[in-house]
Amino acid sequence: ALFGANSPQAAGGVAGGLALGGPFTLVDTQGRTVTDRSFRGRWMLMYFGYTSCPDVCPTELQTVASALDRLGPAAARIAPVFITIDPARDTPTVLSHYTKLFDSRLIGLTGSAAEVDAAARAYRVYHAKVTPPPRESYLVNHSSFLYLMDPNGRFRALYPPGLSAEALATEIKRQMTTNS
Ligand code: NI
Mean pLDDT, to the nearest integer, of 145-165? Predict the structure, then answer.
């Protein structure tokens, strides 16, 4: 019932006719430059969101943390990556505090607006800033899929929001034990 790609070429892949994934250059919570290649050799479970998100992001990150727990030792082969689509507010320090609220294994990534836009574009992530009057703060509407990339950086699966931790762990385990 989920979207998958069985024979993607090179980095990235195709799901339902959409090319998903590709090169990115971002900054981790230590201020170090990180690219998609930094994760070769590990599975990558990716989510795009922002730390001021009132509802969806916290729910999904909690699901990711619980799914990692359910995966047990296999979780060591997975890099759970949270990429902000609100780099103006989500500095490395802000991201560091936020990701630790959910799971110390989460890898928070930010960057310049242009770097974040490029990463979001590669994964077809929709994001749009909205400022409900008369407030000065803003929300960012965004799509909310989880992406599973294999150790070669190839797209393997797309998981919709609202999946249970049990279902997510089962799907990831299935992908990890399936040859591509
Ligand atoms: Ni969100």
Answer: 95
